[in-house]
Each structure stands twice: as C-alpha cells, then as structure tokens.
Amino acid sequence: MELRQLRYFVAIVDHGSLSRAAAMLHVAQPALTQQLRQLEEELGAQLLHRSAQGVLSTDAGKVFYEHALAILKQVADARSAVTQSATRPSGSVTVGLPHSISGALALPLLTATREQFPEITLQLTEELTGNLAEQLKSGRVNLAVLFDDGQLSPFVCTPLAEEELRYLCRADMAPPDDGNGITLSDALSTQLILPGMQHGVRPRIEAVARGAGLATSNVIEINSIAILKSAILAGMGATILPVAPVLAEVEHGAMRALPIHSPSISRTVVLCGSKNIPLTNAAAAVSRLICQVAADLCRSGYWLGARLLDSGAGP
C-alpha cells in the first residue's frame, strides 16, 4: 500500500467521481482506476460503488476513508515537524470543539491565532464529544476540547475551566425565579429539550440528577444546537446547557438563563492531546494559545458561567 493510493482514494471520495478526481490530481483516469483496483485487491474488499452518476463509498470504504485521512494528516504533520522553526511555528493545526463550546472559544481562538501566529493555518472542526475523542485517537485532529467524564486516560489533558450549566428558556416562558434561580427538581419537571447521550453535556446532567435522587423524563432529544435553539424559541420547551451557545439570544432578551441549584450542575472543560502522536511545534503553540484564550475569556467574564482552572503547561 502506497501513500499515493491513499491520496487517490480520498480524492475520489471527496469529489464523488473518478474523472473529477483524475482532473484534480492531474492523473490519467485509467491510471487512477488501476491504482484503486490494486488497493481494493490488497485490502480484499470493495471500497466504492461505481455508477453512471459517480461513485459512493461502501461500508468498507467509509471505514478505510477515515483511516486514510488520519494517515495522510500524520504524514503531513511529520513533514511539518521536521521543517518548522520553534521560534516561528507554521503549518496546519486542526482543533476539535464540541458544539456547546465553540460559541465561546471559536472566534476568540481564530482571532488570537491570526494575530500571534500568522503562519499557522488553524482548522476548527465542530463535533459531538464522542466523535472528537475518536478523531483525536486516530490523529484526525491535533487537539480537542473535551469534558472530564473520568474516561480521558488515553489523552494528555489540561484543565481549562469549570463551566456552569443553566436552565435556558424563552424569556416569556421562564418559571418564577426563587431569588437563586431554579432548583434542579423544578427544572427537571418541565418539558426539556436535551442533546442525546453521545453529547458530552447529557451524561453530566443525568449523573447529577441520579445523585440527587431525581431523573429526567419526557425529554425531546435534539443534537443540533441550531435546531435546539429554534425549538426553544418556538416554545417547545427549555434546556439545560452552558450559556455560551445561546449568549446572543440571552443578551437580546429573547431567552433567559436561570442558575440551577439544589444541586447545581457544572462540568470540567479540558484541552486534550494524544499520548501517542507528538505535537508539532505549531500544534504545541496553538495548545498554549488555547489555554491563554480560555483564561482571558474567564477573567473578562465573556465566557459566561465559566471559572478559570489551573491549566499548567498544556498538552
């Protein structure tokens, strides 16, 4: 198996056509077809379905595609690590952010990277936390912001912040505020719209509820933050999330964010890197920058509901 075969296969999948991939790669289509056939013969599996409309990945092809992307990224990172200067890092760095964190971190991190490391190309990917953990293990992303659920032993972890979860609802449908917000029992008794269990925030809510002898019930599950916000604004229910994803709606008065107590709910936000794949100079620089940006956001109060934790040196 050759690296060019991996590049060819990824290009075919990305373009959905042998002819378009051949044109992009500046390779004759018969040669591209031959390399694909050799790859499938070596793997002993069909990777693509071919039709007049183009190509689609088989189940085996979908699995191989993810591995091929990870391998090609690690090769690119290895080249970059050899050529980079420690004092002027450059190259591409991919950082994974959960949906519920990107509203607080994404733009400030992009801005800080452009200002401090103009030769670094920062790529941000927004995913469910379960997907991000798998991508970090495989090398698809260099760094990922995750939540400490006691299962982060495969990674090098640096705490960033303790983030409070609040009861979020449409402003005109807010329950009475007892002066401290709303009790967890009262919050759970309302119609809730929550992410599924594969989303990092949901297991935390369920764990705190169980510890208090409570349980969620009649939950509407929505994994998209955008759709979840639309459902809340349509009056379908409320949610329990950090404030960051709905900060604009809260500031404009469309939604309210009530503190939860008896007990409160929070989660530990951590920056993670792989224990097995070394960071390039550029990735190490971005790691330090993430810690700096998170600290600035906490101190300024811009990251609403987040309390700064000691981040140490970073992954």
From TrEMBL:
<keyword id="KW-0804">Transcription</keyword>
<dbReference type="InterPro" id="IPR005119">
    <property type="entry name" value="LysR_subst-bd"/>
</dbReference>
<keyword id="KW-0238">DNA-binding</keyword>
<protein>
    <submittedName>
        <fullName>LysR family transcriptional regulator</fullName>
    </submittedName>
</protein>
<comment type="similarity">
    <text>Belongs to the LysR transcriptional regulatory family.</text>
</comment>
<dbReference type="GO" id="GO:2000142">
    <property type="term" value="P:regulation of DNA-templated transcription initiation"/>
</dbReference>
<dbReference type="GO" id="GO:0003677">
    <property type="term" value="F:DNA binding"/>
</dbReference>
<dbReference type="Pfam" id="PF00126">
    <property type="entry name" value="HTH_1"/>
</dbReference>
<dbReference type="Pfam" id="PF03466">
    <property type="entry name" value="LysR_substrate"/>
</dbReference>
<dbReference type="InterPro" id="IPR036390">
    <property type="entry name" value="WH_DNA-bd_sf"/>
</dbReference>
<dbReference type="InterPro" id="IPR036388">
    <property type="entry name" value="WH-like_DNA-bd_sf"/>
</dbReference>
<keyword id="KW-0010">Activator</keyword>
<dbReference type="InterPro" id="IPR000847">
    <property type="entry name" value="LysR_HTH_N"/>
</dbReference>
<keyword id="KW-0805">Transcription regulation</keyword>
<feature type="domain" description="HTH lysR-type">
    <location>
        <begin position="1"/>
        <end position="58"/>
    </location>
</feature>
<dbReference type="GO" id="GO:0003700">
    <property type="term" value="F:DNA-binding transcription factor activity"/>
</dbReference>
